[in-house]
Amino acid sequence: MRSKLLGLLALGLLGGQANALTYSEPPDLGNSPGSSTALGDLAIGANTISGGISQTGCDGRRCDDQDFDFFSFNLLAGQEIVSIGANITNFASSGEARIDLLGASGAFLFAQTRINGNGTFPLTNFGTISTGPVNVFGRAFWTSDVDSAMNYSLVVNVRSTESVPPPVPLPAAAWLLLSGLAGVGFLGRRKKH
């Protein structure tokens, strides 16, 4: 009986935690602002969005085939973004790419980074709307018209802003337990007489 109760308690505690958002292409992220891919709610912890963008047939003024990524996610009430970083691999371009996060339907810049090679690039300026609730729109795109390709993994670290009540000090908890046991013992003794 005791093991069943402990198992149910552990299941209840674990079941209450949300899983961090993880999204990887394919399927392809939206290729235009009108076809933005909704990724859902962020969770406390490290949330990862992975994709790749490329463009070919470029002549310095335009490209025949361009792949951009547009996506959105929700930062919930009681959440705060701590840091955002873009890990870049397979960068092949003489140009530059950008990853931007925009808030409130793209009305103001939330975070951005300029990318010119492989490595880790922090997204900066995210203090403007770092606390929820807010819907955030993201985009990964090339800033120059040259043949280019790269893969990225965007990591958004989120923590809770809700205050946690301070733990009950052990001495106070011990006195409470002892007084409760004494009361039960007193009542049990009183019923016998």
Give a structural overview.
The protein has 193 residues and is α+β, with helices and mostly antiparallel strands. Helices cover 19% and strands 46% of the residues. It has one domain (17-160): Sandwich (Jelly Rolls). The longest helix has 23 residues, at 170-192. The radius of gyration is 26 Å and the shape is rod-shaped. The two termini are 34 Å apart. 21% of the residues are buried. Mean pLDDT is 78; it is low at 1-17.
Strand content: over 45%
Radius of gyration: 26 Å
Which architecture would the CATH scheme give at its second level? Sandwich
Biggest beta-sheet profile: 6 strands, mixed
Structural class: alpha+beta
The CATH C-level name is Mainly Beta
What are the segments in which pLDDT stays under 50 over at least 5 consecutive residues?
Answer: 1-17
Instruction: Spell out the helices and strands N to C.
Output: HEEEEEEEEEEEH
Could you say which overall geometry the principal axes of the C-alpha atoms support? Answer: rod-shaped
**C-alpha termini separation:** 34 Å
Summed over residues and divided by their number, the pLDDT gives a mean of 78
CATH topology: Jelly Rolls
Tally of strands: 11
Number of helices: 2
